[in-house]
Structure formats: C-alpha cells, structure tokens
Amino acid sequence: MATLPRASKLTPGSSNSIFQRPQSEFDAGINASAAWTEHLETGSASGSGSLSDEEPDDGEQESLRPARALYEFEGKAEFRELSVQAGDDLEIVKEDLSDGWSLVKKVGGEIGLLPRTYYTFTLEFTPAPDLDVTGLFNRKKEASTTESITPRGSPKGPPATLPIIPQNTGEWRNAFPSFRRSLLGGKSLNRFSSFVTSGAEEFLLKGTPADITLSSDLTPGVRHEKDTSDSSIDEEESNRLSRLGLGEADRHFVDTGPAWKEKIPPFRVLVHSPSKRTSVLSGAFTVYSVTSLFHPTPIVEAEEDEEDESGYQGAAPFSPTRITVHRRFSHFVILHTALTRRLPGIALPPLPEKQYAGRFSEDFVEARRGDLERYISRIVRHPVARYAEVVTFFLGCENDTEWKRLVPQHLAMPAAGPAFYARVFHPAFNVDAEDAEDVVDRFATHTKAVGKGVQGLRNIFGRVREARTEMSKAERLLAYSLLSLITSKPLASAPMTGITEEDEQYNTKGKGLLNEDGAWCWREGCRDCLKLTKAMQKTSETLQNVADLYDDHARRTQLVIHESLKGMAHPSSLYEGVVTTHKSTLSRYHEATREGRADEDMAARCETVLNTTMAEMETYHIQKVEDFNTLTKEHLDGEIAFYEQVLSRLKSTRRNFEAARFDELGNSPRQPSMYERELEAPRLSTKPLPQPCPHVFDSAPMRPVSVAIQEGVGLFLGPSSRGSVFGKFW
C-alpha cells in the first residue's frame, strides 16, 4: 500500500491557472539584490515601472494589484527588502521575480522586496457562506477615517455580511535560467533555506498542487497508483502531460530502507574527443563528444551449471550499445538548469564553473573534459536523475535541429516545486520520527567529518605529487652526475654535489681522461674499463627514464586521482539542503502529531518528504562506498603499474652487469650518450605541476573570469568575502 499526501481542496478552474497567467517580462536574477537591481535597470530603460518614492500617475496606479500581508516579515535593508506586519495593505508592483520574491509597495509609499508567499491578493477574494464578520469590518473602519485601508480596486460600497477568503491564484515561475546564476556555477545566494525554495514547505502547508489532480483521470483505481500496462494515451496527450510534469519520468518510488527504487539499470557516460569550433554568432567554442554505454542484461535460459555448444556457460556476452552526441558547455548548463527545476528534492552535483580566460588551452580543455565527465557520471548514477526526461534528451538527441526545437520546451517547463513531493510513492508508515531525528544528526556529523577529512587528504595528496616531482629531479641529477663521472665532462650544477671550483681544474682536455674507445680509463685498449663504462652509461640513461616516469606519474596518473577527490570533498555542502529539509519537516511532523492538534493529512505529507530525504541519505551512503572503493583501487593500481615500470627498467639495466651481456659490451667502442649535451644545461627545472581546477565549493581564489564577474555583480552584492585556504595547493 502506497501512501501519498491527500489533495487539498482547490477553487474550481484553478488547475489551469499556470497557463492562464502571462509570463513575466522580468529576467530572474540570483537573489533579492539581483532582482532589485535588474528591475531598476529595466525600469530606467523602458521609461516605466520606476521605483522612485514619488507617487505614480493614475495610469500606474491602475496597474498595481492590491494585496494584504499574511505574516510578519522583517526585511534586511542591505537586500532592499520590505518589513511588513500581518494585515498590512500592500500594492504589488511586480509579482514574479527571482527565487520567490515580489516587488511590493506599502500604501504609505515604502517600496521593497517581499516573499511571494507572505501576501495574498485582496482583489480576488471570494465570499464564504454561513459566517458573519460585520462587526469586525465595522471595528476596522472605525480605527481609521481614511480610505487607505481599502485596497485600490476593491468595492467601496456597504460592508459585506460575509467574510472573504483567499482564492488559489496558482503559481508561476520564470521559465528561463538566470544568466548570472550560470556564470556563478549554479550557486544561489538566496538566503531562504532549501526547505522553502524546494517547495517542501508549500507542499506540507497547502498539500497537492492543482495540476496533480489531472492525474486522477488517467490512473484507474486508487489515486497515485501506477498506470496499468493496457492504458493507452496518444502521443500528443502524452507530450502535454509530460510538459505538466505528469509523465512516468516524473513519478518516483521509494522502497523500504527508505531507498530510491531504480526504474532503469545504471549505465556509463564518457566525455571525450574535445574539438574547437567556430560559429558566426557565438564565436569560438569547444565541443565534447558524449558517449553513453548501455550494457544489456543477458537472459540466461540454460542452467548455471550447463554450458552451451561454444563452451560459454550461460548466455553469450553482448557488446554495449553506444550513443554519441556532441555537446558544448552551454548545453550542460541547460541540462543542469532544467534538472534543478524539475528535481528540487534531489542533491544534484554542482556544475563546474565557467571560464573565459585560457579556455582553449590544452590543459584547461582536458581539465574541463574531466569535470564534465565526472558531473554527468554522477547524474546518471543517481537512481532518480538518470531517467529524467531532460537527461535522456541530453544524452540521446543526435539531431541539431531537433535539439534547437526541444530545448525551449524543456526550459519553459514550470518548476516542479511542491509537485515533486506529491509524485513520490512510498510504503505506508515506514518512517519512525525518533529514528529519523537520530539519523539526520548522525548523517550531518558524518558528512562534515568526511568533508574535512577529504580536504586534508587532498592537501596531503598534493604534497605527495610534489614529492614525486622532487624525486624526479633527484633521479635526473643522479643520472647526470653518473654520466659526468664516466665522461669527465663537468656538470653545470656541480656545486650542488659539493665539488668546489678548485677541484674542477682536472676537467681540462688532456690525456688520461678517456681512451680512444671512449672508455673511462688512461690505458688504451682496456676492455674491462670499456665494458664498465658502457654498463654505467646505460645505468645513467635508465635513471633518466625513471625520472621521466616519476614526473609523468605525478602529472597524469596522480592528477586524475587528485581531480576525483574533488567530488568527495564537500558532502556536507552538497547535502545541506537535504538535511535542512529533513529537520524542518520533522518539526512540522511533531506539530501535526501533537495531541489535540493532530493533522493526519499534514502528517502524511511530512512522511512523504521524510521518505525523500532519507532516500537521498541512502543514495549518498551507496555512492560513498562506491567512490572510495573505486578511488582506492585506482590509486593502488596506478602505484603498482608505476613501480612495475620502474622495476622493469631497473631489472633490465641490472642484467647488463651479468657475465654474458657484460662481455658483449666490450666488442665495440662506446657511443656518446644523448644526455651528454645536457650536462652543460641539465633539465632540472620543470614546468609547474598542474593542479585540479577548484571545486565550486572550495574556499579558493576565484579564477580571472569570476573576478571580472564579481566586480560587475559587486555593485549590488558588495565586496566578496571568500578567503584563500587552499590557494597554495589549488
């Protein structure tokens, strides 16, 4: 038996309000200050919508919608927010701003930003029968002789004998992503908690959104059950329902645990083969090949202990199905924007930060490729996100024309908000309040400890890589010194070995240093010294190869491990919204189950949200085990392969001193080593060791493009307070 929140009573005709409301012309920003500043710019540019304290003209007054504050709100002056008391009369200048804000004006003239859910429109009140509040209306009228208490546009006749109740006005969110939000790597500066911004609070207070009631006409039997296999819906209707968020991909199931139920098996995604392209409209950009690998599960018809004719036990293995598409970074921004809107209750990985300076350098392109591959891999690893429609569209749309046609539709889909939780199916009574409270405290403590530990591990791992480069220099210097010894040629860095200038007087050309065969001997025709000299020269060349292995290991193999640590370094920041939503829901659950004030419907909705948050915690647990298991094995495999290469070269060189091969070295004169010419200028200084690009949550200095953006946005956000804790490592 699945349990889901019961549908709240809705005003007739409100289910289509999402399509009736005109789209706001306001371009959403990233927080309240951004919303304020952008509206100022829009108003000044168009000549309308001025935010000055002067009274607007009559035409402007008619465009303002009367409203009344429902709750007390203490605004912050630095964010241009408006402080109101419950019951204050307001006028709405702009309803649909970014992140749930509205631009509001008090009847007295003060103007500012107010959360959209903190007021209701008084013009759309409707009477409720069987109640009389005439006395209340008269008392309010006696309190003031002016007409300021009457909202503009409201009837001014005799007081009605029936009270007024708010009408459900629906919800509208800007369909297109914020440009500034994408530039800041998807980070939001909204000071509201994720409990509010994800729609969980609205879901608990108001119940099921209006558009969810449409699903009752499609599902036979008990509401919220899965469609039967014989139910048929034409393609056009299916697309319409999908746009409403009522498709099968928008229904999520929780098993006992609680844990997300997987609808489709995991698959692998590779981001590879970056190439630079140029467009007349957008200029130069980098395109990455994104390949999805689907491994079909073979159906084993024979018994496990039986072998087929080919000798293979069970069914023959299948090669994976490959789908390759070409995507640029802006396409990943579209994917991330759509996902965060449709899956507000899921802890999605942050998108790598955008960069302009040096974005076509080979090192940066490779680093960006790795970041994007890790990002999309974490998306498809999530049991819910992997079957989202925008993900399948992103990974499967191979036609550019079809991509351009469907992208606006995905971006125009309304944010799921509370509807996300209304479409979560879970077993009944599978959450214990005491256990849920203990689990979230343990989870929050554990993720903070993991993040701190991984940050320290990243620090140490960076020092290990630096030590490998120092070992490379030491091996190279040892090789040069050995070659300098057997050739009697001075090494430019000889003072590093303790040789003084007075001791270098023997390094003059003369007899007795090398014989005619190039052997390290004063005797002509000395085969013993010839064999020794050639064997030692090969040893010097091997040490050069070992130095190259150390350097390459630190720059490539260990860099991959260093990059992978980024995805595990900030679990606390990544799941902060899940923890906040879980704790806030527990508080509401205790209120809904309190004696004398029990609310069965709200308790059921709280149980749904708790199932969602606990399923996210279980997802982290599974992925943490997989991540550290894979990372440790990759590190060990890399170390083993590295030392095997070093050991193989050292063993090969050691065989030169064995009797058979040692005697062969005396059959021909010594040839100069390729490294002799480097003795005058040894390669002891190398390029700086490449470091991983900073993670979005790292307390590292911003990159140049972010600094430029910060200077522009800083006009209304103020100076940045980001410190540099790991700057010397990243």
From TrEMBL:
Taxonomic superkingdom: Eukaryota
Alphabetized InterPro entries for the sequence: AH/BAR_dom_sf (IPR027267), PX_dom (IPR001683), PX_dom_sf (IPR036871), SH3-like_dom_sf (IPR036028), SH3_domain (IPR001452), Sorting_nexin_WASP-bd-dom (IPR019497)
GO molecular function: phosphatidylinositol binding
Compositional bias ranges of the Acidic residues kind: 52-61
Compositionally skewed regions (Polar residues) per UniProt: 11-23
Listed GO biological process terms: endocytosis; endosomal transport; plasma membrane tubulation
Classification via SMART domains: PX, SH3
Segments of this protein annotated with the region Disordered: 1-23, 37-63, 142-161, 216-239
Annotated keywords: SH3 domain
PX domain sequence ranges: 266-401
GO CC annotations, alphabetized: cytoplasmic vesicle; plasma membrane
Annotated SH3 domain residues: 62-124
One Pfam family, short name: BAR_3_WASP_bdg
Record protein name field: PX-domain-containing protein
